[in-house]
Design a protein that fits this description.
single chain, 580 residues, mainly alpha, Clc chloride channel, CBS-domain, three-stranded antiparallel β-sheet, three-stranded mixed β-sheet, 24 helices, 63% helix
Length: 580
């Protein structure tokens, strides 16, 4: 009796949570707390790994002037550990679901084992020194925990998506010590929209996570001081050009990662040995410059505070680009968030130095150019122009510089969208065959299939019967169309019933002479977008739905499909704005 009372109480509480915006904010605060704690655990674990393998803390590895050659063997050793982990999960038939894919295609549902796998792979990769960041693990665990909690509470689809965005954004905001950055990361990258229904839950989670991490004393990922250089109108044009340059470089980086990954997949190298080989390839790069190792926190701060030559900046930029492409292309796991920030800072300093070499050109401060370049490059790779602009603001507290960062970020975003169309996360999904370009929810499109919309057991007739017999079976006005089948029961076309009554002679002819769309039909797994495209291309009013053996499962009408599609769009918009 006591157990059933407890279950009844929990069920009642779940129902209240589903109908209360205030309750969702409360759940978001809990998610933010857990996201902050998980960020601390992940950062501490990575710190411990790098301390064991390299004898340094996580924030100082890339700032070393050199690394003993024997310690660089940690790179292939990390690849071997990844290979061992891959061996134990080799039975998986799909890639793990990340937060962007979950919100775009699965209504916010993330299996917890996927989050644990991604986090473990990222920890091993970063801890071993591969040129990847921990942000993927932070966002995955924050969003994954939020998804598990939301599923247990049986939240509505849109509320679950918001909660996943809140968890991922809270983790990123906690890592950078920048709650506004985390909030806009949730809006722009994970949820795909900035809506009234999402504001309070997301901000509450991000503030809670940031406070949790600050209370622990963990230093922020990014600490930067702007120069005292006054921002002029000309600076906006110069930094806009920097934004366009960073967009080109960002597209090049994403394509390089994909190209290497494709070549590796097509090579005879077994899957399990690829990270090991990648680790060996990273050794000469790290030997030339340890700044190519790990995410690059220490290197970024070092290069911003010390005087370095143009040649050194160019060399480190090329090495970091190569190391990131090799790391991800050969199977190491992690994000390009901080790597893109580091590359952007290098690109900005190089840009400022090159401007200074032009006779009569106005000088721009290399520190300011580095900060603006960080925002522009990160927008090009990760997406989210406001996210990266607010990161500059929260790191520098300089509103004037943030204005130029917004200019560069918008220019970079526009060029990437025009010429490439993807962020790194959605580009990798695209290479796997998905069509998403953002985290905007299109999962309902995928689930609204021909099989779900079809009318089962439609009227059928053998293709060999005469038109006269067809008239006898189907009087005018009884049905609008009939499916024809061959002697084996397979689909043989559609007949519009009125067409049989326009015949005035030769009523003994077989009804198959009136058949239309004999070679055109739907499969039950085709989604509503594909169904509508077929109706448009064929200019048809009805289509049959067939199984793999071409037997008829049902029929779908264009009128019904468009009505369902319009209804789902209206429902999605209501959910988006919290009016559902």
């Amino acid at each position: 009796m006591k157990k059933s009372s407890t279950l009844l109480f929990l069920a009642n509480q779940r129902r209240r949570l589903r109908s209360s915006e205030t309750a969702l904010i409360g759940v978001s605060v809990m998610v933010g707390l857990w996201a902050g704690v998980m960020t601390l655990i992940l950062a501490g674990t990575a710190h411990l790994l790098q301390n064991i393998l390299y004898g340094v803390g996580i924030d100082r590895l890339s700032a070393l002037s050199s690394v003993p050659a024997y310690r660089l063997l940690a790179l292939p050793a990390g690849g071997a550990l990844l290979a061992a982990l891959g061996y134990f999960v080799r039975a998986r038939t799909r890639a793990p679901v990340d937060v962007v894919e979950a919100n775009a295609l699965h209504g916010g549902t993330i299996p917890m084992k996927d989050s644990l796998l991604v986090s473990a792979q990222t920890l091993i990769s970063n801890g071993a020194g591969a040129s990847v960041g921990l942000e993927a693990a932070y966002a995955q665990m924050g969003g994954g925990l939020a998804s598990v909690m939301g599923q247990w509470l049986r939240l509505r689809r849109n509320d679950l998506r918001i909660l996943v965005g809140a968890g991922a954004g809270a983790a990123v905001g906690a890592a950078f010590g920048a709650p506004l950055t985390g909030a806009f990361y949730a809006f722009e990258v994970v949820i795909g929209a900035y809506t009234p229904a999402a504001i309070a839950p997301v901000v509450a989670a991000c503030l809670t996570a940031a406070v949790t991490v600050r209370a622990s004393g963990m230093p922020a990922y990014l600490i930067a001081l702007p120069s005292a250089h006054a921002i002029t109108t000309l600076d906006y044009f110069l930094y806009a050009a920097l934004g366009l340059l960073c967009a080109v470089l960002g597209i090049g980086l994403m394509r390089a990662v994909t190209r290497i990954e494709l070549l590796v997949r097509q090579s005879p190298i077994p899957d399990l040995y690829r990270p090991v080989l990648g680790g060996f390839l990273l050794i000469p790069i790290a030997w030339l410059s340890p700044q190519a190792l790990s995410a690059g926190h220490g290197a970024l701060h070092l290069d911003l505070t010390e005087q370095v030559t143009l040649g050194f900046l160019v060399a480190v930029f090329l090495l970091k680009m190569t190391a990131s492409a090799v790391s991800l292309g050969f199977g190491f796991r992690g994000g390009l968030f901080f790597a893109s920030l580091f590359l952007g800072s290098l690109a900005g300093q190089i840009y400022a130095a090159l401007i200074g070499l032009v006779p009569g050109a106005p000088a721009i401060d290399p520190t300011d150019a580095a900060l603006v370049g960080m925002a522009a490059m990160a927008v090009s790779v990760v997406g989210g122009p406001m996210t990266m602009s607010l990161l500059v603001l929260e790191a520098t507290h300089d509103f004037a510089l943030t204005g130029t960062a917004i200019t560069a970020a918008l220019c970079a975003s526009a060029l990437v969208r025009e010429r490439f169309g993807f962020s790194f996360s959605t580009w990798r999904l695209h290479t796997r065959g998905e069509t998403i370009r953002s985290a905007r929810d299109i999962g309902w499109v995928k689930t609204l299939t021909a099989g779900r919309m079809m009318r089962r057991e439609p009227p059928t007739a053998e293709e060999s019967i005469s038109i006269a017999e067809f008239r006898r079976r189907f009087p005018l006005g009884s049905v609008s169309r009939v499916v024809l089948t061959d002697p084996d029961g397979a689909y043989a076309g559609l007949v519009q019933t009125p067409a049989a009554y326009t015949i005035t002679d030769d009523l003994d002819a077989p009804v198959r002479t009136l058949a239309i769309l004999v070679e055109s039909a739907l499969r039950p797994e085709q989604d509503v977008a594909q169904v509508m495209a077929m109706f448009e291309a064929l200019e048809a009013d009805d289509l049959a739905v067939l199984d793999q053996s071409n037997r008829v499962l049902g029929t779908v009408s264009e009128k019904y499909v468009r009505r369902r599609y319009s209804g789902e769009i209206e429902k999605a918009l209501k959910d988006l704005y919290g009016e559902g």
